Amino acid sequence: MYGDEFRGRGGRGGRGRGEGRERFERSDRGFGGPGGRGMRGEWRGRWDEGGDFRGGRGGRARRGDVRAAVLALLAERPMHGYEMIQELETRTDGLWRPSPGALYPALQALEDEGLVTVDTSGGKRLLQLSDAGLAAVAGAPENRPWENFGTGVPEAHLAMREGVHQIGTAARQVAQVGTEEQKARAAAILTEARKALYKLLAEDA
User: What's the pTM value of the predicted model, to 2 decimals?
Assistant: First the structure.
């Protein structure tokens, strides 16, 4: 069944089957959603719960993008569903990470249409293109939706996204292996950083 590989991934404290999947879907509802103020109103997007920036001009998923991306990825090599999500996130520098709720219906539709076949011999659903799927890709060889993401995104936004990611990684490492004193100091550093950011916004008000 599509989506089984997400059960148990990322659930806080291991609570509940599918909690990781719920988080994926919650953090990726649309691109460019409510957003915040763009830099001087020029660009809009939003930060998700994991610290990644989503959406905005040049980073919007269009109808059919997930389907086209699946076909293009499988033309390169067979993949698992979760692997596709990771691959798309990597190729767009974190700007596009389709939710399981967007990916798995597309995979099921492609399988129903006979464009994708599934190998379950390894215990997971490994997807690959059928002959009909290969023919469909051959008819649209340049259709790689991930190449459209990031176009027109200001460098400052990309730099902020990378900074948030790096800070989050460092904070998680301290939380996992740091002493109680180090954790307390890290919490104080994060508090001061948050205050400094709000102060920066106040200067522009």
Answer: 0.50
